[in-house]
Amino acid sequence: MFKSAFKPSPIDRENALWFIINGGRLLVRKNSHPVSVPTAGQLADFISGCGHTQFLGHLDGQPCFAAGPPKDFQPVDALEFRGLKSLFGRIDENHLWVAGRANQLVRWSRHHSYCGKCGQRVVDKKDERAKYCPACGLVNYPRISPAIIVAITKADKILLARSGRFPGGFFSVLAGFVEPGESLEACVEREVFEETGILVKNIRYFGSQPWPFPDSLMVAFTADYAGGDIQIDGHEIVAADWYPRDKLPNIPPGISIARQLIDWFFERG
Ligand SMILES: [Zn+2]
């Protein structure tokens, strides 16, 4: 189990797991099955050259740090960088979520080294996870981009669509980013109508899942069909249709909440 924390104790520096992130890739031990991340002992002197270091908390009691590698860093033979998404199913799921958290925070730290208001260099705030500008006082928190994802049902069928962005051509439930000033429910109605021309009712909360690749928070809903015929723009959505349980198309794999929504439809009988 992962327990988030902000400030490490001195003992947390010993035997910690280090999630070193470089451009969406994670430093891992070569030929490890399942894939594992290096400990402080295995990284030795290298840790002192890292930047954007963040303490994340404890995974099953073991302290976890995130950081970016030193400039011009070449991994030693026993280590290599691998794309985070390529590790789905190859790394312990708890480690994957901590790596995602590391990815989100290191990226945020890297992209917010300077104040967005006055341009001065910022510093880490001492009492919370934020960047502080000593010149103008602006405080910047880690960015989280909320997005809705929704399973729409019509009698015994579910609406699934294929995005032009999906790799492998699979079909999934609809999703989209929340706009400033918009409620989650209004976002569900807008996104579904924009992408498919369908109206929905009975919007119900299903669950949520961080998707830190790089910084989303997926908020999942179920909803009922309320009217309209499917109309797609052929660009963002390239195909959409109503599918019964026994004729589901190619759907997304494993760990995503999109798959949990489709499984919910499949199992509800
Ligand atoms: Zn400033």
Topology:
Layout: E1 2-4, E2 17-22, E3 25-29, H1 40-43, E4 51-59, E5 62-68, E6 79-83, H2 93-111, E7 123-124, E8 131-132, E9 139-140, E10 145-154, E11 157-163, E12 174-177, H3 184-196, E13 199-211, E14 216-227, E15 237-244, H4 257-267
Parallel strand pairs: 2-5, 10-14
Antiparallel strand pairs: 1-4, 2-3, 3-6, 4-5, 7-8, 8-9, 10-11, 10-12, 11-15, 13-14
The structure holds zinc ion.
Short recap of the structure:
The chain has 269 residues and is an alpha+beta fold. It has helices spanning 40-43, 93-111, 184-196, 257-267, and strands at 2-4, 17-22, 25-29, 51-59, 62-68, 79-83, 123-124, 131-132, 139-140, 145-154, 157-163, 174-177, 199-211, 216-227, 237-244. It is globular and about 60 Å long.
What does this structure look like?
It is a single chain. By secondary structure, this protein is an alpha+beta fold. Helices cover 17% and strands 35% of the residues. It has four helices and 15 strands. It has helices at 40-43, 93-111, 184-196, 257-267; strands at 2-4, 17-22, 25-29, 51-59, 62-68, 79-83, 123-124, 131-132, 139-140, 145-154, 157-163, 174-177, 199-211, 216-227, 237-244. The strands form three sheets. A six-stranded mixed sheet has the order 1-4-5-2-3-6, covered by helices on one side. The longest helix is centred in the middle third of the chain and has 19 residues, at 93-111. The radius of gyration is 21 Å and the shape is globular. It starts with a strand and ends with a helix. The model has no long low-confidence stretch (mean pLDDT 93). Residues 115, 117-118, 120, 133, 135-136, 138 line the site of zinc ion.
